[in-house]
Write the structure tokens for this entry.
Amino acid sequence: MIRGRYANFSSVLLLLLCLLPVATRAAAQATDPKPPQVGVSILFPPGPLIQRGAAKLVYEMRITNYVPFAYTLESVDVDAPPRRFSFGGDALDGLIKLAGEANPARTRKIAGGQTAIVFLMLNFKNVAEIPKTVNHTLYFRSSDGARHALAIEPMVVQQRAPLVVEAPLRGTRWIAGDATHNGPDAAHRRAILFNAGHAYLAQRYAIDWVRYRIVNSKATTWSGPEDKNSSYFCEDAPIYSMTSGKVVDVLDGIPENVPHSGKIAIDINFSNAGGNHVVVSLGYGLYALYAHMRPGTLKVKLDDQVHPRTLLGRVGNSGNSTEPHLHVHIVDQPSFLAGQGVPYEFHSLTASDGVELSAEPHDRMIFGHIGPLTLSKDDYPAANAAVSFP
């Protein structure tokens, strides 16, 4: 009986939302009589990131439409005193992904029952300029043509400084593959996954480290037989711990994949997606993950204490991987995929600005012009930057 009454009330509310005249909304700007029936939340509150000397906030906004008719998200205004940002039009199109969408349609229309994710990145001159809270106002247009402004609860910025780490690799000609950026092709940045009913973006600040050389006048990651892991310039490179800590997870024995074959040697799940890997607890609820190592090369075991420059293993092509590389990120849970990625910085690296990655068949990587490399301290590299480590 009670359930029936609630259902009837819900139907009446939806009918009123559809029929309430536009003039009523215009007369009451402070209180929208037809508020958008959407839920809006921040996936994970951001903390400051220093990337190429600039301070940034990297975060995601989740919007769910709970009624049968569509809303179009026209713009998002961000008030982060002393700065203000506005995202709309074509620029906003590239920041939105509909949940379950295989091929982004570049649309701001959120149909009934759909969820959209807005991937935001705010740029500041320095950390001191980042406020403790950030306000957002979303502007929607409903199916009747009316415009609605929705101010959500202030977003609290985490005050924890980024973790400063040492280099996981040695030498020159490394590429910081898919380091965090906000382009529509940002694979790590958009890899939202669910576990136990919670949405996680463990790879928010992940980097795929590959090595390049100039082959036939192009910067690429391999030379020789394409289907041999030994043809790739980073294969078997030593991997070192970036921090002190305790080894809390180790997986070995997963065979390497045939590169650029489109096939994975094992059935991928949450436990083995990182292939042969090591997870190090840093304390204070943070974990460093090193993934896709060569089988049989891991040098540490559970409960080992490690320090910067402790040898962990060697670069390989195991797990969810298309060619040899080292995947690293820092997360708030000891899981490759279930946890929230947090920002970190390298104590010392010599790096270029971001480098364009050409889309090639079979996941081949060809890099564009690589500019000069400059020394940085306590910094995180740009997407696909060329990097030399001490």
Observations:
- Helices lie at 2-19, 22-27, 89-93.
- Residues 2-19 form the longest helix (18 residues).
